[in-house]
Every structure is written in C-alpha cells, then in structure tokens.
Amino acid sequence: MKTCKINVTDREGKTHELEGLEGWRVMEVIRDYGLPIKAECGGACSCATCHVYVDEAWLDKLQPPHDEEIAMLDEAFDVQDNSRLSCQILLSEELEGLHVTLAPEM
Fold first, then answer.
1. 31 phi, psi to nearest 5 deg
2. Residue 90 burial (10 A CB sphere; 0-12, 13-18, 19+)
3. Has residue 88 got a pLDDT over 90?
4. What is the pLDDT of residue 70?
5. Whole-angstrom Cα distance, residue 66 to residue 88?
6. Alpha-carbon span 18 to 35, nearest angstrom
7. Is there a contact between 16 and 77 (Cβ–Cβ < 8 Å)?
8. Containing domain of residue 25, as a range?
9. What is the pLDDT of residues 15-48, one digit of tens each?
10. Which of 56, 76, 83, 105 could form a Cys-Cys staple with 48, CB 3.0–4.6 A?
11. Cα(71)–Cα(56) distance, rounded to whole angstroms?
C-alpha cells in the first residue's frame, strides 16, 4: 500500500509531518503519532473530538462532508468554515501534503 504525508499543526503552533497508509483516516494517523487528539468514537462519526481545521488550499480537494459529519460538527467547539472531522478524511494520493490544524479541545 502507498504511503501519504500530511502536515498537522498542533495546538501550540508546531507543525508535524506525519506519514500514513493510503485509505487510513487522518484521525488514525494523528492519533498513532501521539499527537493530542481524543477521537473518542474511534472514527464512527459519533463525536466531534477529532475536529480539525483544513488549510484553505486543501478544502476543494476533499470529499464534501456527509450529513452525519455536519450534524456532529454542530456539536463541536469553535467551528469555522474550514472545520472537518479528521475521521472522515481518508488519505489518498490526491491528499499528499494535506495540512490540517488541531481545533481547540472542548
């Protein structure tokens, strides 16, 4: 399986280059590298604890959010126009270099 690199800015403003397998959820990669993301539901889109802000340059490259994700984002803290749940973003070749920032914890 092919690997993809993403850039994740933590809550202190430090950017980390992470690598994960194509098809993995961005949330899984962030969690596996030990960055502070709760991801309480494990990727089932039933919480908002993996909330991230997607860099504006990448928004059009993502699949649009499903109704379930939109409903969960309504429960999140400090939602912005570029808010997404990282459990709903799957790594792919097209997302090589994706940049997200961890949202504040609730």
1. -65, -45
2. middle
3. yes
4. 95
5. 9
6. 10
7. no
8. 3-102
9. 999 999 999 999 999 999 999 988 888 888 888 9
10. 76
11. 21
Question: What does the pLDDT read at residue 44?
Answer: 84
E strands along 1-106, which residues? 3-9, 15-21, 51-54, 83-85, 99-102
Nearest 5°: the CA angle 7, 87, 31 is: 60
Nearest-5° angle of CA 21, CA 43, CA 23?
Answer: 20
pTM of the predicted model as reported, rounded to 2 decimal places: 0.93
Higher pLDDT pick, 88 / 43: 88
35 Ramachandran zone, left/alpha/beta (phi>0; psi -120 to 50): beta
Q: Where are the alpha helices (DSSP H) in the chain?
A: 26-32, 67-73
- The structural domain count of the chain equals 1
What is the distance between the alpha carbons of residues 60 and 74, in angstroms, rounded to a whole number?
A: 21
Do 75 and 102 meet the contact criterion of CB atoms below 8 Å apart?
Answer: no
Span 59-63, average pLDDT: 94
- Euclidean distance between CA atoms 47 and 33, whole angstroms: 21
